[in-house]
Specification:
Strand order of the largest sheet: 4-6-8-9
Number of helices: 10
Number of strands: 15
Distance between the termini: 16 Å
Shape: globular
Structural class: alpha/beta
Strand content: 15-25%
Length: about 400
């Protein structure tokens, strides 16, 4: 289901839907036309585009926007002219207003800018029982919009160090809303743990490189659906549609993003953050199970997983005879057991046939249910089938 309609606490990434070119064929083939794609990004001050000066070239070239922990460590401790790095934490005290936490992030980034920093690393390391992290996408986008409003956007570059992103869509939204590079340290640590436990038979560095390469190929494929061939053009492009976030939140933190359906605000986003934090750190100090729950986001899971519109319960073979008898006797008082195996959506009866008046066109039209003797059409959702209305003519709305 949509994130705003889900019974579970979804990550903020799930409220964003990628836009793509409305054409029959993809604008760029990300595999066969890979020679025209470019994944290099540049970090530092962009300078004045209207002036041809040497200072505009003092930037750091990164071949891969998905950084390892070693790469990020090198950036933090580099000493190069024209480049200064500051790390700003996106943690805040639990039970504090999320809006105040974002406002405090603005102040900290302003302090770093006044110290001469032109590369700001937003980090969520250090989460404990009393500190929670601002959602990474909210922190990146809010900081991007703040730099635009204060006319500092071309003077500062943002790098994210976060445990939250893990899927290709997560990285695509972060890059699309202002991050120059991302270090998913928790995903890398999970890969190393799988190798240590014997679940993967690979060298840790090779496995992490493969993961980063897979994520990068996914981002290139997403960008190619809009005809974008370089990661630099995709950065800060905001080619997304928001489904299920309140208008005031979109206008303030995700400005100029298409949003036709409202929904949650900052209180609901904060509630989801604290829910996940309490799941990891028990408020009473008791032991907690740190096993990652499989909520069925990628594959149907029975029990605690997400309820889907196509979820089907296994039907015992003993109900087949009951199903057949009910369909032939047209007993409206008996509800067939298989009628509850799907969701509670009501069926409607439709019938399609060829248009006999224009056989050359082979067009098809909808034939409504026949009228009864009193001139009214029957209700199109009876509880049983009849021989006059075969099963293959019943579709679920």
């Amino acid at each position: 289901p949509l994130a705003v309609l889900s019974e579970k606490h979804q990550l903020l990434f799930s409220y964003f839907k990628q836009l793509f070119a409305q054409v029959t064929n993809p604008p760029i083939d990300a595999i066969r036309e890979r020679i025209i794609t470019d994944t290099q990004v540049y970090v530092g001050s962009d300078g004045n585009l209207l002036e041809d000066k040497e200072d505009n070239c003092q930037v750091l070239e990164i071949a891969h926007p998905i950084l390892t922990s070693v790469d990020l460590l090198k950036i933090k401790h580099m000493d190069l002219p024209g480049l200064k790095v500051e790390t700003v934490s996106i943690l805040y005290y639990k039970n504090t207003s999320l809006e105040k936490a974002v406002d405090h992030l603005y102040v900290e980034c302003d302090k770093a800018y006044k110290k001469g920093a032109n590369i700001i690393i937003l980090s969520d390391r250090g989460v404990d029982e009393n500190h929670v992290a601002i959602p990474s996408l909210l922190a990146v986008s809010a900081m991007e919009q703040y730099l635009i409003r204060t006319k500092k956007r071309t003077a500062v570059s943002i790098i994210l160090e976060s445990a939250e992103p893990r899927c290709v869509h997560d990285f695509a939204t972060l890059l699309g809303y202002g991050a120059r590079a991302v270090n998913p340290y928790l995903a890398h640590e999970c890969i190393e743990e799988c190798i240590a436990k014997g679940l993967l038979d690979k060298d840790p560095h090779t496995a992490i490189d493969d993961y980063n390469e897979a994520v990068l190929n996914g981002i290139v494929k997403i960008a190619s659906k809009m005809g974008i061939s370089t990661i630099q053009s995709y950065q800060s492009a905001q080619i997304f549609e928001i489904v299920g976030i309140r208008e005031d939140v979109v206008d303030k933190y995700f400005s100029n993003t298409v949003s036709r359906v409202g929904g949650i605000g900052l209180p609901e986003i904060s509630e989801g953050v604290e829910y996940r934090h309490d799941h990891a750190y028990d408020p009473l100090g008791l032991g907690t199970d740190t096993t990652v729950d499989s909520m069925g986001y990628h594959k149907l899971r029975s029990g605690a997983g997400e309820k889907r519109t196509t979820s089907i319960t296994r039907v015992p073979s003993s109900t087949c005879a009951e199903r057949s008898r009910t369909a032939t006797t047209n007993d409206s008082k008996r509800i067939p057991p298989w009628s509850t195996t799907r969701t509670s959506r009501i069926p409607c009866a439709v019938s399609w046939h060829s248009n006999t008046r224009n056989r050359a066109s082979r067009s098809r039209r909808w034939n409504p249910l026949p009228r009864s003797s009193n001139g009214s059409r029957p209700v199109p959702c009876p509880t049983a089938l009849s021989p006059e209305r075969p099963m293959n003519a019943w579709l679920w709305r």
